[in-house]
Amino acid sequence: MTDVFREFQSLFDTHKATLTWQPPTEVIAQFSELYNGIFVGNQRLNLTRITSVEDFWEKHLWDSLVALNLTSLDIPTMAKVIDVGTGGGFPGLPLAIAYPEWHITLLDSTQKKITFLAELSQDLNLKTQTIAARAETVGQDPIHREQYDLVTIRAVAKASVCLEYALPLLKIGGVAILYRGQWTPKETSQLLPAIAQCGGELIDLLTCETPITKSQRTCLYIQKKKPSDPHFPRAIGTPKQSPLAPV
Ligand code: SAM
Fold first, then answer.
1. How far does the centroid of ligand 1 lie from the alpha carbon of residue 28, in Å?
2. Max CA distance (Å), the chain
3. Is the CB of 59 under 6 A from ligand 1?
4. pLDDT tens digits for 193-242?
5. Angle CA(127)–CA(108)–CA(247) in degrees, nearest 5?
6. Is the CB of 92 under 6 A from ligand 1?
7. Which atom of ligand 1 lies at the shortest distance from residue 92's CA?
8. Do you find a cis peptide bond into 246, omega within 30 degrees of 0?
9. How remote is the CA of residue 25 from the centroid of ligand 1, in Å?
């Protein structure tokens, strides 16, 4: 057993009350391999500024997994999932390890990150798919549009831009999880018209504190209720230049 494995095991144990799911030993071993792989990749690619074991556990593993704490979430066992703007593979890779029966696609516009994630997934024996493309393009591609049960998106853009990237990819009834940090009721009201415009409904909101550094995390759960307007997502760059909402 490596030091990273022991530290992850101890952190999951110490903070077990903060997650509804506890990883078995072999899953903790995979998380340690993920840490080592990201650590190596970071030496040539700018994947993450988070490098200490404890920070990685809290800001990448715990943070990716906490969104699934919402017990009312009804995700099919063999869900089709896409992580938009996955960067160094977050939250997509921790979810692929925790939910091996899901079919997870990692999407990012940066080819070198995607090449790295494809190699890392293979090393970790994960069946993830990888795509190097813009969310605006993929959202208009019939192979991907309205195909997913779950879309995850963290730290990619303002919430309304994330919404425009995510909602067209969802099947009717599917759910997008927008991972946010600090979030206020005013921001929720500002986002609601854009949610409706994209064919969605805000079905829940999870607010919590990270267990070590005590910073605020908010997950917005948006369910697709009707087909997204064919104009969404708009052309490359337009969602960021002219967002559907101020937040
Ligand atoms: N989701 C990861 C995380 O939370 O650690 C990475 C966040 S990183 C700050 C944002 C990533 O989104 C970058 O890797 C960038 O290439 C990607 N990205 C930004 N806009 C995008 C778009 N329109 N389509 C696909 N990827 C995009």
1. 26
2. 52
3. no
4. 999 999 999 999 999 999 999 999 999 999 999 999 999 999 999 999 99
5. 125
6. no
7. 1
8. no
9. 31
Q: Cβ(161) to ligand 1 under 6 A?
A: no
Give the C-alpha separation, 247 to 182, whole Å: 12
Q: Given 3-state DSSP classes, what are the helix, strand and coil percentages for the chain, each rounded to the nearest 5?
A: 40, 20, 40
Domains of the chain: 3-226 (3.40.50.150)
Report whether residue 64 contacts ligand 1, using a CB cutoff of 6 Å: no
Report the alpha-carbon distance of residue 51 to residue 35 in Å, rounded: 9
87 lines ligand 1 (CB under 6 A): yes
Residue 60 Cβ inside 6 Å of ligand 1? The answer reads: no
Residues contacting residue 188 through CB under 8 Å, at least 6 positions apart: 202, 205, 220
25's tokens: 């030993």
Question: How far from 158 is each of 65, 139, 147, 243, CA to CA, in Å?
Answer: 21, 18, 24, 8
Compute mean pLDDT per 10 residues along the chain, 247 residues long, and list them: 93 97 95 95 84 94 96 92 97 98 98 96 96 98 98 98 98 98 98 98 97 98 97 98 98
* Mean pLDDT (the chain, rounded): 96
